[in-house]
Design brief:
The protein has two domains: 171 residues, no CATH class; 126 residues, Barwin-like endoglucanases (Beta Barrel). The protein is built from ten helices and 13 strands. The strands form two sheets. A six-stranded mixed sheet has the order 3-2-1-5-6-4. A six-stranded mixed barrel has the order 8-12-9-11-10-13. Strand 10 and strand 11 form a beta hairpin. The longest helix is centred in the first third of the chain and has 13 residues.
Length: 326
């Protein structure tokens, strides 16, 4: 009997609210259906959990296919929705709110672009700033901040956690700054993102304006050539042949920065791409894996249309060879 009692006390300890609050908030799902997993602890109910995560108590029941009147059971797993009311990726905080980091755990061969698409197409610049990243590559298992849970200072037990870990340079502005006109705030929110952030996969030929390749771009391989040479020093090269296609983006036409999607090289790797028809080569940075859709079946590579232009590509798809450091 004493053993059973001791076991019960230990269980209560591990389900204590304080231990739950110290855990990282990890996002699950894919936008627009994003959520956090919460394990019910002693004495918790819809109202206390709602206050913790800044969610209406009556919204929790239907979101989890539960009956509001029935209440929770100890150890029950529930989903906490992340929506406009409690999830920020750059919008304003209210006077009585603080922000708790929400994380994504990087999986194998997963890059920032794929994370951006999964979490409301948040800008790559925001991801880099929140996580103090200087490049596009992130290691497997990295805990990456993808947004912030907005909670009330005087109601959520998570508020103290926010004040301890919330970085000072987060681009979330509080609403008490009334000097800035609403029009300017809207202009900032709608400000165009850097050009490579949301490439559109397409099989249309590759001129920036007309959709036809004319071979007018020439940056001697592009701005990433020196980075490629640095990456391959004292490294074994991977050489592959296959079919490539393009995606539309305005990047590269003025600065020679070429980008690509590839399934094997890690994000951030510089790949040398050669058009086998004429021997021309360019150097492109891997954003992420090739999107898993029907039109990409059998492709070795997707490169930006500006890169294809310098390669002198004249067809929708072309035969290429690539090389990069293993």
């Amino acid at each position: 009997m004493r053993k059973l009692f001791a076991t019960f006390i230990i269980a209560l300890f591990f389900y204590s609210p304080s231990s739950a609050q110290d855990k990282l908030l990890v996002a699950e799902g894919t936008s627009p259906n994003l959520y956090i997993i919460h394990t019910v602890t002693p004495k918790e109910n819809y109202y206390s959990v709602g206050r913790m995560y800044n969610v209406s108590p009556k919204d929790l029941a239907p979101y989890n296919d539960l009956t509001f009147e029935k209440g929770f059971t100890l150890g029950q797993i529930i989903k906490i929705p992340l929506g406009p009311n409690n999830f920020s990726q750059g919008d304003a905080l209210k006077e009585n709110e603080v922000a708790v980091p929400v994380y994504h755990i990087i999986q194998a061969k997963e890059g920032l672009y794929r994370v951006s698409v999964k979490y409301n197409k948040v800008s790559l610049d925001a991801l880099k700033k929140w996580n103090k990243l200087s490049g596009d590559a992130v290691s497997n298992g990295t805990k990456l901040i993808v947004g912030y849970l907005k909670v009330l200072k005087d109601q959520s037990p998570l508020a103290s956690q926010a004040m301890k870990v919330n970085p000072p340079d987060v681009t979330i502005k509080k609403t008490e700054d009334k000097k800035q006109p609403i029009k300017k705030q809207e202009e900032k929110i709608n400000e165009p993102e850097p050009k490579v952030k949301k490439p559109i996969v397409t099989d249309t030929p590759v001129d920036a304006n007309t959709g036809k390749t004319n071979g007018t771009v020439n940056f001697n391989g592009g701005k990433f050539k020196s980075m490629y040479n640095d990456q391959i020093k004292n490294r074994q090269l991977e050489n592959v042949f296959g079919i490539a296609a393009t995606f539309k983006t305005t990047s590269g036409w003025q600065d020679g920065k070429y980008y690509c999607f590839h399934n094997t090289a890690e994000p951030g790797t510089i790949i040398k791409v050669t058009n086998n028809a004429n021997g021309k080569s360019i150097y492109a940075k891997v954003l992420d894996a090739i999107p898993d859709i029907k039109q990409n079946s059998g492709l070795l590579l997707r490169i930006s249309n500006s890169a294809a232009d310098e390669l002198g590509v004249t067809d929708t798809k072309f035969d290429c060879s690539i090389s990069y450091a293993k």
